Amino acid sequence: MGIAALLKQTALRLPDKVAIEFEEQRVTFNEIQLNANKAANALNSIGIAKGDRVAQYLPNCLELVYSLMGNFKNGSIIVPMNISFKEQEIHHILSDSGAKAVVTDMERLAVLKKVIPKLPELKHIILIDGNEQNTHNFHEITKNAADKEPDTIIKDEDNSIIFYTSGTTGKPKGAVLNQVNLTSNIKALAQAWKWTEDDVLLLTLPLYHIHGIGVALCGSLFVGNFVILKKKFAAEEVFEAMQKRKVTMFMGVPTMYFKLLEVEGLGKYDTSSMRLFVSGSAPLSRELFHKLKKAFGKEILERAGMSESMMNFSNPYDGERIPGSVGPCLPGVKVRIVDQNYSDVSVGTEGEILIKGPNVFSGYWHKPNYNKHAFKDGWFATGDIGKIDDKGYVYIVGRSKDVIKSGGINIYPREIEDVIESMPQVKECAVVGVPDKEFGESVKAYVVLNQGSKLTEDEVIDYCKEKLASFKKPKFVEFVDALPKNSMGKILKEELRKKHKGK
Q: Are residues 360 and 257 in the same domain?
């Protein structure tokens, strides 16, 4: 059963319930269902059929919701694009995916115009807020479209969405998820988080990322809860909404949680209605976990997933939430930790994380040779290095490409980052390997201090020497105002390595 079928079920069950509030607009589940039908039929009318790729290049808005659901209904494949992407980035994604259409707005049309001549397969530009020559207006083409369910037959194995990876190794690759990859994971999350139609979800995540689209939006349209959708994240507005609207769920990334802690007088806000704070998309440090618990009186639930599989692990809703761990496997997901020969390692031993389950994709878009190496006997090799404890909790210590090899010894950056971030003066840090003529690589730490705090390079190194084996201590420490991150809060370590080379 696909996403469109899940939405239809919810609309039949809760037709008049308000599903989403965006700015001054409130729409019911039935209205979303009918508008999605219109969007699907409008796409059919301009020649967008099952299997065609449709890129979404929009900020959070209701038109984006209708368009996404319309794609699911007519069988076209969604290609979400980060709204901050510029010419080179969107050209790669549109070209690689072979997108036939893109849904966007006037603001981003200016960027698109620069690449349209280079994209012969791109036939349609659909604007939500204007009219230009050789474009369609979303409201005009959907206004007269039928609101009946389209005739397209959607099968479980049909591709539904292509998430382009962060591109940490070369250009971004398109991870293709089918209908069951999405729906199986949504159902697992609803079970794991005791997610019900009584919940009120504050959604400030962007709807171009798997966390925002796959988990928050599609999960809500399946469960039937009320969503307060915001165009973007603003820390004070989050607290105001929690207090005023009696929010019960919030999904964020560590960067958002840092900003929430910086709100002046945050203790004045009543957040007692909140039952669940979720963090993902980037590691949550132990230090931040404890600061948030002190501030909110609740433990953050950390989970972990990836573009290739939706969510894989989650700390339990009921039970122990261990800081530094992403928790056990979600229902239906299996995990192995293996050595370089792909043999299982013992409990507590670090190795590469392999996963298998109905949520795991079958391969990258048009990358047959790469896909041969991405899977080992049916298990997806994630490229993450981690370990499992005797309780079944998974710990991710870094990416395999981020492992620092110094003097023939593997050093895992996350262990050093945890130690440095435990210093009261430190807000956050990132550890990378830098070239070393004698040892191959040396450890370098980039450190962001809390406002008004002071530290020296020697103080950081000495502190690490007290807490860790001497070979793990940083050889270099550089203090920076901020760490380079992508829009979902993942630290761009490649930029830090380049920064060191540039010195």
A: yes
Range of the structural domain that residue 87 is part of: 3-164
Pick from 182-186, 297-301, 398-402: least confident: 398-402
328 and 381 share a domain?
Answer: yes
Within a domain: 221: no
Half-sphere exposure of 84 (CA within 13 A, CB side): 7
Parallel/antiparallel/unpaired status of strands 200-203 and 226-229: parallel
From 365, 381, 399, the end of a domain falls on 399
Longest Cα separation, the chain: 71
Whichever domain contains 481, its CATH number is 3.30.300.30
What's the domain count of the chain?
A: 3
Dump pLDDT digits (tens) for 8-28. 999 999 999 999 999 999 999
Nearest to 394 by CA among 378, 382, 406: 382
383 Rama class: left (phi>0) / alpha (psi -120 to 50) / beta: left
Question: Chain-centre distance of CA 436, in angstroms?
Answer: 34
**261-272 mean pLDDT:** 91
Q: Above 90 in pLDDT, residue 255?
A: no
Those residues with Cβ within 8 angstroms of residue 69's Cβ, 6 or more apart along the chain or in another chain = 3, 4, 7, 32, 33, 35, 36, 39, 40, 221
Q: What are the pLDDT digits (tens) for 228-237?
A: 999 999 999 9
Task: Pinpoint the alpha helices (H) of 56-101.
Answer: 62-74, 87-97
* 384, β-bridge pairs: 399
For residue range 107-129, list pLDDT tens digits in order.
999 999 999 999 999 999 999 99
Residue of 478, 372, 491 lying closest to 420 (CA atoms): 478
